[in-house]
């Protein structure tokens, strides 16, 4: 039997402003037996009860889908043709409990256990950054400890937030404590702004992470940096976690905790394209908050960065 290869609905089959908005106008696959055929699944996790300032990421998955309708199949810069060799679909949202964080985290982990058991590589539409913890917990069971490329204005290594151990700013401290990460294969890019102590980013460095503060990225191409990143995180499975607030609020204002002096959209593309060749086993794009995104540009950027992630997955052919 020929391999099934779902294709995004073309602009001549249904106007791009019409139809039901799935990620990239792909089929929405719900049946377990059809999910089994998939290589990659776009998954939404509409959580925002882990945010510390402005909320609204619960609307992220829906709006990223709405802003993804322009994306065509072929990457004209890199030649990547993801739909030529991988079976890809939108597998819908995880039905989180918006009143109970512990319960939400449990539901997310269980959902990803199932996704991974079905052999689907998840690309996640967030949701606040809390969601990466249960995803990494599920991934540990499938792949063992993973390397990590983490783009963010923040290190997200707080011990607690307002006394809570699970929140969007504690994700990677918990991930280290729970032994989910191969700490010598972790890079954090774009960190900036103010801390509570001058040592705030050094907790990461003490774990073995390579920390690339935003200032190290200013005024230059990040393509050379990515050579170093590949050498650091390679040699095993790697997860890619992209917090949209890593990008400057000039381009990505629709987020809960914006920080000035951030990365450009071009640098974001250089980072993701620079992940080509890594053994990527999943990725997420988190912290898009549509209520603060008056132009839709932040969701548009999020949708396109998820497409760029798709283009660097193992098994993607290039033309
Ligand atoms: Mn974050
Ligand atoms: Mn952040």
UniProtKB/TrEMBL annotation:
Pfam families: Arginase. InterPro entries: Agmatinase-rel (IPR005925), Ureohydrolase (IPR006035), Ureohydrolase_dom_sf (IPR023696), Ureohydrolase_Mn_BS (IPR020855). PANTHER family: ARGINASE/AGMATINASE, GUANIDINO ACID HYDROLASE, MITOCHONDRIAL. It comes from the Bacteria. The keyword Chaperone does not apply. This is Guanidinobutyrase. Keywords: Hydrolase, Metal-binding. SUPFAM superfamilies: Arginase/deacetylase. The lineage of its organism: Bacteria, Pseudomonadati, Pseudomonadota, Gammaproteobacteria, Pseudomonadales. Belongs to the arginase family. Agmatinase subfamily.
């Amino acid at each position: 039997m020929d391999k099934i290869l779902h294709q995004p609905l073309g602009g001549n089959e249904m106007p791009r402003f019409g139809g039901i908005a799935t990620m990239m106008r792909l089929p929405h696959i719900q049946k377990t037996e059809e999910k089994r055929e998939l290589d990659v699944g776009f998954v939404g996790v509409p959580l925002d009860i882990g945010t510390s300032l402005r909320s609204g990421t619960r609307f992220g998955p829906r709006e990223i889908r709405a802003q993804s309708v322009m994306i065509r199949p072929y990457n004209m810069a890199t030649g990547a043709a993801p739909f030529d060799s991988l079976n890809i679909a939108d597998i819908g949202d995880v039905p989180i409990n918006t009143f109970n964080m512990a319960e939400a985290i449990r539901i997310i982990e269980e959902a990803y256990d199932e996704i991974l058991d079905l052999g689907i590589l998840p690309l996640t539409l967030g949701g606040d950054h809390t969601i990466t913890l249960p995803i990494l917990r599920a991934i540990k069971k499938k792949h063992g400890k993973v390397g990590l490329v983490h783009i963010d204005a923040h290190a997200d290594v707080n011990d607690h937030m307002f006394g809570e151990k699970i929140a969007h700013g504690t994700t990677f401290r918990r991930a280290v404590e729970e032994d989910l990460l191969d700490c010598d294969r972790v890079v954090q890019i774009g960190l900036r702004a103010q801390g509570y102590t001058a040592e705030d980013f050094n907790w990461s460095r003490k774990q073995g992470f390579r920390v690339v503060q935003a200032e190290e990225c200013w005024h230059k191409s990040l393509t050379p940096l990515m050579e170093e990143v590949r050498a650091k995180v390679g040699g095993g499975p790697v997860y890619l976690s992209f917090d949209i607030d890593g990008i400057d609020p000039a381009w990505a204002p629709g987020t809960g905790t914006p920080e000035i002096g951030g990365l450009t959209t071009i640098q974001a593309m250089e980072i993701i394209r620079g992940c080509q060749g890594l053994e990527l086993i999943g990725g997420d794009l988190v912290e898009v908050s549509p209520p603060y995104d008056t132009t839709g540009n932040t969701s548009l950027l999020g949708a396109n960065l998820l497409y760029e992630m798709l283009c660097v997955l193992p098994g993607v052919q290039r033309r």
